[in-house]
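Re: that backbone. Tokens:
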């Protein structure tokens, strides 16, 4: 490489590294951020575990045991707090270390997929300098630990598909264990993604017989089940019931949530009318631009006010409030047909992706109009490049990239299917692979252009009767 180009590359790497490092140091100026699930679920669960009060979300006695949440993130917080005397900022530091681990595994995934080193450097550069993922390390939320588990799971599964026969069984078992542990961090789509990913791995694995594939499937499924078994036994002992871990936490099936799903088209509305619906200071007037029917808005307002006065964490809204919202849900489905519902779903999904990496309220970023505009523009460019990279994966039928694209699709399905999940945090887990596809979206056109240029140079030289010599390797 010429000296001038080498110098430019070194300066660019130093600038990218310094920018990302300074941003993460700047994040440490703030304490951990508690909001939503952090204050309602994870923080009380961790504090009660630390105090010996059991797995309970109650701040005061009696400490009723929790049967809907999964244990690993509260245990992670409790472990961090036990080492630091309950210092919440220590959770930020621990999650920043997890982020570094994610970047290391992302580099290894690029190597397993056998892409050139510049693709890995570009992937890490984008992930390091963009603040979208790093900002979530400041939140008491399961997203960072869940992403760590998902990236580790994909890495092990990719290794297992390429492993030598003597390592194959161990890697499939390890992938199953990590997959099970990741489910115990956060449930959402894991009950679908884990089986689909396992079947994908068996289809694309190296040469082996049908019986070997069935045996590996058994190893993988057995590892997942054994990982989940202790928590299932705990639920059976404590509540005398057999259930899958975390299966009872999906309260979005309540009539109010079902009605909201028929009209919610913007993630910003979710915080007002979903997460803070029972806040006495929360809004009671529903947006007329989304709900033009004044009678529907008034009935919903009255029911919501009554629900706020009578709601309990254990039983939710009383029967009369649920009956009103069930009726509104039925009428809403009739007034808003499937094509309208489809437009609503697509709009909120696109807005989720756009708001994830730009000026979203949870993004820790200096309050500067210029910086916000630059951030939003760069994020949209990354999304466009990632779509190009995914198109390349589909066109080339690259099995490894299709697994990662499938993970992105599974996260995207959440806001698409249900308005109750139209929150940017459900897409955070896909960010590392979005960065990888964005790097591919930049590298592949450049690689094609460079190949075309070399071919043109060779053809011109041949027409002139000149001999084209191969490049001499730089031996050191």
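Recovered sequence:
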């Amino acid at each position: 490489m010429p000296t001038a180009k080498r110098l430019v590359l070194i300066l660019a790497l130093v600038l990218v590294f310094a920018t990302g490092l300074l941003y993460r140091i700047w994040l440490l100026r703030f304490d951990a951020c508690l909001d939503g699930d952090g204050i309602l679920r994870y923080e009380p669960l961790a504090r009660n575990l630390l105090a010996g009060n059991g797995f309970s979300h109650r701040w005061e006695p009696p400490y009723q045991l929790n049967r809907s949440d999964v244990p690993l993130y509260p245990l992670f917080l409790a472990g961090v707090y036990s080492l630091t005397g309950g210092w919440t900022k220590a959770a930020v530091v621990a999650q920043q270390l997890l982020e570094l681990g994610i970047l290391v595994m992302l580099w290894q995934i690029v190597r397993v997929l056998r892409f050139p080193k510049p693709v890995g450097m570009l992937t890490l550069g984008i992930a390091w300098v963009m603040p979208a993922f790093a900002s979530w390390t400041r939140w008491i939320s399961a997203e960072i630990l869940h992403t760590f588990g998902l990236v580790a799971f994909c890495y092990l599964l990719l290794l297992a598909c390429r492993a030598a026969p003597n390592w194959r069984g161990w890697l499939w078992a390890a992938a199953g264990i990590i997959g099970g542990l990741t489910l115990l961090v956060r449930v959402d789509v894991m009950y679908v993604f884990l089986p689909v990913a396992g079947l994908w791995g068996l289809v694309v694995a190296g040469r082996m017989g049908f019986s070997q594939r069935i045996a590996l499937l058994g190893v993988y499924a057995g590892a997942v089940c054994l990982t989940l078994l202790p928590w299932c036994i705990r639920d059976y002992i404590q509540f005398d019931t057999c259930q899958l871990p975390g299966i009872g936490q999906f309260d979005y099936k309540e009539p109010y949530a079902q009605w909201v799903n028929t009209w919610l088209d913007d993630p910003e509305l979710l915080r007002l009318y979903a997460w803070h619906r029972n806040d006495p200071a929360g809004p009671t007037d529903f947006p007329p631009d989304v709900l033009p029917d004044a009678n529907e808005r008034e009935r919903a307002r009255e029911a919501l006010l009554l629900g706020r006065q009578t709601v309990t964490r254990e039983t939710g809204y009383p029967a009369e409030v649920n009956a009103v919202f069930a009726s509104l849900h039925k009428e809403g489905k009739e007034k808003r047909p499937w094509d309208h519902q489809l437009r609503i779903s697509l709009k909120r999904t696109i807005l989720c992706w756009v708001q994830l990496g730009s000026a979203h309220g949870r993004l820790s970023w200096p309050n500067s109009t210029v910086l916000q505009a630059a951030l939003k523009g760069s994020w949209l460019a990354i999304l466009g490049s990632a779509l190009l990279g995914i198109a390349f994966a589909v066109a080339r039928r690259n099995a490894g990239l299709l697994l990662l694209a499938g993970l992105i699709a599974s996260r995207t399905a959440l806001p698409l299917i249900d308005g109750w999940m139209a929150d940017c945090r459900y897409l955070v887990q896909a960010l590392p692979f979005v960065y990888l596809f964005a790097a591919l979206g930049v590298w592949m056109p450049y690689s094609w252009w460079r190949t075309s240029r070399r071919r043109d140079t060779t053809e011109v030289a041949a027409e002139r009767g000149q001999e084209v010599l191969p490049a001499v390797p730089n031996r050191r």
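Residues 431-463 form the longest helix (33 residues). The two ends are 13 Å apart (CA to CA).
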